[in-house]
Amino acid sequence: MQHWARRLEQEVDGVMRIFGGVQQLREIYKDNRNLFEVQENEPQKLVEKVAGDIESLLDRKVQALKRLADAAENFQKAHRWQDNIKEEDILYYDAKADAELDDPESEDVERGSKASTLRLDFIEDPNFKNKVNYSYTAVQIPTDIYKGSTVILNELNWTEALENVFMENRRQDPTLLWQVFGSATGVTRYYPATPWRAPKKIDLYDVRRRPWYIQGASSPKDMVIIVDVSGSVSGLTLKLMKTSVCEMLDTLSDDDYVNVASFNEKAQPVSCFTHLVQANVRNKKVFKEAVQGMVAKGTTGYKAGFEYAFDQLQNSNITRANCNKMIMMFTDGGEDRVQDVFEKYNWPNRTVRVFTFSVGQHNYDVTPLQWMACANKGYYFEIPSIGAIRINTQEYLDVLGRPMVLAGKEAKQVQWTNVYEDALGLGLVVTGTLPVFNLTQDGPGEKKNQLILGVMGIDVALNDIKRLTPNYTLGANGYVFAIDLNGYVLLHPNLKPQTTNFREPVTLDFLDAELEDENKEEIRRSMIDGNKGHKQIRTLVKSLDERYIDEVIRNYTWVPIRSTNYSLGLVLPPYSTFYLQANLSDQILQVKYFEFLLPSSFESEGHVFIAPREYCKDLNASDNNTEFLKNFIELMEKVTPDSKQCNNFLLHNLILDTGITQQLVERVWRDQDLNTYSLLAVFAATDGGITRVFPNKAAEDWTENPEPFNASFYRRSLDNHGYVFKPPHQDTLLRPLELENDTVGILVSTAVELSLGRRTLRPAVVGVKLDLEAWAEKFKVLASNRTHQDQPQKCGPSGHCEMDCEVNNEDLLCVLIDDGGFLVLSNQNHQWDQVGRFFSEVDANLMLALYNNSFYTRKESYDYQAACAPQPPGNLGAAPRGVFVPTIADFLNLAWWTSAAAWSLFQQLLYGLIYHSWFQADAAEAEGSPETRESSCVMKQTQYYFGSVNASYNAIIDCGNCSRLFHAQRLTNTNLLFVVAEKPLCSQCEAGRLLQKETHCPADGPEQCELVQRPRYRRGPHICFDYNATEDTSDCGRGASFPPSLGVLVSLQLLLLLGLPPRPQPQVQVHASRRL
């Protein structure tokens, strides 16, 4: 077998030496040494420059934010409240007006209130990816808030003055994107004006629930939610509680920590989390699913619930926010005030705020609930029906904002958010936020107001930050990344969410963006701590097509981005320390090389694909490379490579590489007969963006990415020494291989290493494309006991001669498998159409043996950015099936009609008709997502790579009455494993199958209950405002019970019976002190 292995190695090496042209391309570069310079990437200088540029970019936004916040506070302070203000007194652009005018059933059309709404003209602006109007602001008001209320009209009145400040900001910084004021009343005023992106279903957008608003409106929170599940809490009330808890969880961000427990006589966590956990997306999902399983039974025991909550908050042995501490209790009522518990745990300092929520329609005395909240610096709320849930589960933020307002200028600090999806279509953004305070006083000599007016925000698109990073000088495998205090990436080439939900931030941890190891944990910790550093590490990287794992060396360099919570890192392979910069000052040479880009030269010089880069501002992009090349040529006929509107570095390098690869055709490829060695094509790809495929007709079957930096073969060849085989992915085998003139091939590529003095770099990759069928036949000959001239001689198992892979293919299985475990070649004709498959799908028994004998190592990881098809709705969850349905007897009972149960059910039905699903069965759908839209999910990925065994190896597969001998050996200077094995004789050996295919994780990845026991290192914001001695806690909520009128009940029933679509009643609920 070793003899066969040497023959295979020699054949591959010979073909690559003759046709690959590695040595010849080196000589071509040296012959053209006067046409380029070798530049150095100095990591420390690079990363400090980029960090400084990002700091300058964000600082300009910070100055604009401060101007806006100061102006807003002054405008509101000067504003005179008007009790008799009317809708027609206010003129503004309602961002949802156009959509509502198109809807004849719209509430506002029926009200006839459009007289106060401006009609604007818009122009397309590529910076906003939207149509905008720079002369006006737009206003968005949540659907469940009545636009004509006195509070809202006064809010619209004083915020109108912000329009001029928005415009002045843009005059000073034309790069500004959305400028937004999110009011604590729910009003959003943003600039420039653009129509609201109306969803297909009801619009549930409320600025107060946006991640950026929540972060700016309060300091981090440690929250324990306790839910009364005693026997009196049943039916509608229990469902209201479940929905309320889910809505409450949505007011928390990744800076917050939370736990949820249910209680009756005893308290217990609703999920597997036994302590406070970070309120990230995955943990909140666990809570939301667990809450749905709560069952009402037993008697109410407030003491058990509160003792459990205080114990949670006093646990100092865990990671937590260590700022605002609060308990949120949901109940239907009770008489116990549990004063002894508060005396023991919370008095006299009252460091824990208590918020109480009376849920459902009932006749209990709510005084004890009010007392609990008022005695512990909290607030009391009532949630009588589904319509009150959203507003009353977010109003607590007003209370938490009091210490911030009272702290004054000390609390006026800009914070930068996690990455999230912009609701107006900008894509992924980060937002700078600054709270806006109420500076008014209730009267002469009175204490100053302690209400937060809202949050000012300015968006920065991630693409704008990416433009500040080096382009193409870092090579195919070098990159810049940035993380925040949570370790989440702000920039990273692997930050590619397949689907985004603008209600949640995009939170990809650095250790999930890459393959985690101890070195990266140290780097991440150092970056979060705001340190500088440099470290060279040996690590694993995943290939671009996510089929392979390579062990590589990388240099990490990092610095903090001053004045922000971000840290910037640079990753460079050693071979990317230097790069080529073309110097084509000779215009005659420019023209000569440019001609080799013209399609008229392809027949003689081979087909050229050019990387779709931004060579010039006026170059029209296209996904079709032929069309892109045409656009490029047309533009180059109008401008020169030295034009100011073009990127001279990219253009000069592209033209240089065009000439250099043409010389390779001239010196090597043109004079060779590819058919002699059964080659379908030869090719070269370069850092400059050229991929030349010869002959021209081979381009018809070329499926690799025209951008070399995004081509898996290119990046893997740079990271691996020797020849890298890449079999076709199984999905590309669309035609049977036995068809005549089949052109399915196997790529073999290798990097061209260039040494110029003491500087080494890899500016190109060359390779060949093997004809699969012809090389499968050649493989059998090379793994046999004959030369090309000898006639094959059959040798049986009992003979004295040696069996081989050609004549004994009925007894022996001979295969070449690549380093990812994929079949490359086989001596079995029936397996040719399985080339490119994971070998376990071909021979599970043999692949398992190779893995068990350390020829392969397995690496499992999770893709947290995957998209999955929507699951069909089941019979469980928050659907109408689980709601109480009255019987015929109930309908005939007059007492039932006037009961609280009937009123609550009617409210449910009313909102159900609007929301299409009771109790937020699918909030994403309500936000406007199509029913067939894919949703985010977690996929488990498994890759295999070569293990520690390098020598040849013999082993026996023993399984019961069967045994199977196999021999395996690595082929030198390739990524191939040569395996010869006896064919399986019985089916018992088919036990066990290794899986490589990506699989969906129904539990959203690794077990969350285990992960929270070993939380990753993070740091919260360095500021905390949770206490102020001058805080006035007297405003702590009060009951507001409004009995239903008989007329309303009858009207509702008639609407339901007639099938008419009812309209929601105005839902504005504002604190008494919310008068602005």
Automatic annotation (TrEMBL):
<dbReference type="InterPro" id="IPR002035">
    <property type="entry name" value="VWF_A"/>
</dbReference>
<keyword id="KW-0406">Ion transport</keyword>
<keyword id="KW-0325">Glycoprotein</keyword>
<dbReference type="InterPro" id="IPR051173">
    <property type="entry name" value="Ca_channel_alpha-2/delta"/>
</dbReference>
<dbReference type="Pfam" id="PF00092">
    <property type="entry name" value="VWA"/>
</dbReference>
<dbReference type="Pfam" id="PF08399">
    <property type="entry name" value="VWA_N"/>
</dbReference>
<feature type="domain" description="VWFA">
    <location>
        <begin position="222"/>
        <end position="400"/>
    </location>
</feature>
<dbReference type="InterPro" id="IPR013608">
    <property type="entry name" value="VWA_N"/>
</dbReference>
<dbReference type="GO" id="GO:0046872">
    <property type="term" value="F:metal ion binding"/>
</dbReference>
<keyword id="KW-0479">Metal-binding</keyword>
<keyword id="KW-0813">Transport</keyword>
<keyword id="KW-0107">Calcium channel</keyword>
<dbReference type="GO" id="GO:0005245">
    <property type="term" value="F:voltage-gated calcium channel activity"/>
</dbReference>
<dbReference type="InterPro" id="IPR036465">
    <property type="entry name" value="vWFA_dom_sf"/>
</dbReference>
<protein>
    <submittedName>
        <fullName>Calcium voltage-gated channel auxiliary subunit alpha2delta 2</fullName>
    </submittedName>
</protein>
<comment type="similarity">
    <text>Belongs to the calcium channel subunit alpha-2/delta family.</text>
</comment>
<dbReference type="Pfam" id="PF08473">
    <property type="entry name" value="VGCC_alpha2"/>
</dbReference>
<keyword id="KW-0106">Calcium</keyword>
<keyword id="KW-0812">Transmembrane</keyword>
<keyword id="KW-0407">Ion channel</keyword>
<dbReference type="GO" id="GO:0005891">
    <property type="term" value="C:voltage-gated calcium channel complex"/>
</dbReference>
<keyword id="KW-0472">Membrane</keyword>
<dbReference type="InterPro" id="IPR013680">
    <property type="entry name" value="VDCC_a2/dsu"/>
</dbReference>
<keyword id="KW-1133">Transmembrane helix</keyword>
<keyword id="KW-0109">Calcium transport</keyword>
<keyword id="KW-0851">Voltage-gated channel</keyword>
<keyword id="KW-1015">Disulfide bond</keyword>
<keyword id="KW-0732">Signal</keyword>
